[in-house]
Amino acid sequence: MKFVAAFACAALSLAAQDVVIHFDPAQTKVSFTLSDVLHTVRGAFRLKQGEIRFDPATGKASGQLIVDAASGDSGSGARDGRMKKNILETQKYPEIVFAPDRVDAKVNLEGDSQVQVHGSFTIHGAAHELTIPVTVHASRGQIKAETRFNVPYVKWGMKNPSTLFLRVADQVTINIVAVGQA
Question: Fewer C-beta within 10 Å: the chain N or C terminus?
Answer without folding.
Answer: N
